[in-house]
Amino acid sequence: GYDAADYLTVDRRLGTNDDLKELVRLCHQRGIRVVLDGVFNHVGRNFWAFADVRRNRENSPYCSWFKLNFDYDNRYHDGFCYEGWDGCDDLVKLNLRNPEVRRYLLDVVSRWIQEFDIDGLRLDVAHYLYRRFLRELHNTCAGLKSDFWLMGEVLWGNYRRWVNPDMLQSVTNYECYKGLHSSCNDHNMFEIAYSLERQYAAPGGLYQGCNFYSFLENHDVSRIATLLRDERQLKPLYALLFTVPGIPALYYGGEWGVKGCRENSDAEVRPSLELLPDNDLTVHLRYWINLRRCSKVLAYGSYRQLALNSNLLAFVREYEGERLVIAVNIGDFPQSFELEGRTYTVNPFSAELCS
């Protein structure tokens, strides 16, 4: 979980270290890379170093690993208080400005790479992590595996603070996450179009050449099938996700249109699922996933808007002489636009390749 007690032992509810090694080996056999969730901003109250502080108070050699105050007590009556993540006392914040803490965490990651052969890390709350630690993490991982991938969970700010040659390869694109679903709900494609222009359009886009992690849902937000007021928009919205710039992410269960409201409980958006039968959405997704997988222009191409109204967004992606024109209609009526003297019509609640 997010309250680590031991970074070097797999949670016994999931299995053993050998189980993880075997899982990664089997994934690699099938061309699947494995990215672990790296939680380095905070640990649980049972983390070994914090447990030593609880036992020995000021005499613990690990006091400087955390932000402590021995003049006050906490609700657990430890006889001291400490800084928790976002006010949560169950998650004890690490002092990443302490070189000993950073060395320990870098050793942990090195052992993950060497023992389990993982291919990357998704860094929890990366916007809170000490940037010197991120640079050291980058250098450590690159020294062990040249194509190791570092992606940060970032909720706000200038994404280039984290995505640069010295730190991370990608961050979560929460700006476009919001624009994708609210553009549909409001029948206002101008919102997502504005974000895409701001981020990627040439010339002047803030993040040209960046590959951010694009998503419609994850473990911290409500399911997209719940957020959308009109489920008929699911198909064109997923088509948009897989054709705009970025690295498209499919959250488990999304391929079946699973619902869940984050405001009700974590369990609603993180259910245990059995394999469900295919439906229209899974067939639709396979088409766009295969297109994205086989297309360099969708992976690396430039972005230029062609047509826009409340329900229609049409754009062109170009790379090394290849061009794809994509048009998405989220409304009830056909939408048309002109391109190079030809009229293209997009049916309601659909997405079309127009070139």
Give the topology, please.
Elements: H1 17-29, E1 35-38, E2 42-44, H2 48-56, E3 68-69, E4 81-82, E5 84-85, E6 88-93, H3 99-116, E7 120-123, H4 131-144, E8 149-152, E9 170-171, H5 174-185, H6 190-200, E10 213-215, H7 224-227, H8 234-241, E11 247-249, H9 266-269, H10 280-294, H11 296-300, E12 302-308, E13 312-319, E14 322-329, E15 335-339, E16 342-346, E17 350-353
Helix pairs in contact: 3-4, 5-6, 8-10
Assembly status: single chain
Low-confidence stretches: none
Strand order of the largest sheet: 1-7-8-9
Q: Output the number of helix runs.
A: 11
- Give the topology string: H per helix, E per strand: HEEHEEEEHEHEEHHEHHEHHHEEEEEE
Share in helix = 25-40%
Task: Count the E strands.
Answer: 17
Major beta sheet, specifics?
A: 4 strands, parallel
Quickly give the structural class: alpha/beta
Shape: elongated
Kindly provide the radius of gyration, computed on alpha-carbon positions and rounded to a whole number of angstroms: 23 Å
* Overall residue-averaged pLDDT value: 95
Beta-strand content bin: 15-25%
End-to-end span in angstroms? Answer: 46 Å
In short:
The protein is an alpha/beta fold. It is 32% helix and 20% strand. The chain is built from eleven helices and 17 strands.
Description:
It is a single chain. Helices cover 32% and strands 20% of the residues. The chain is an alpha/beta fold and 355 residues long. The strands form six sheets. The protein has a four-stranded parallel sheet, with no helix packed on it. Strands 12-13-14-17 form a four-stranded antiparallel sheet. It has a three-stranded antiparallel sheet with strand order 2-6-5, with no helix packed on it. Strand 7, helix 4 and strand 8 form a beta-alpha-beta unit. Helix 5 packs antiparallel against helix 6. The longest helix is centred in the first third of the chain and has 18 residues, at 99-116. The radius of gyration is 23 Å and the shape is elongated. It starts with 16 loop residues before the first helix and ends with a strand.
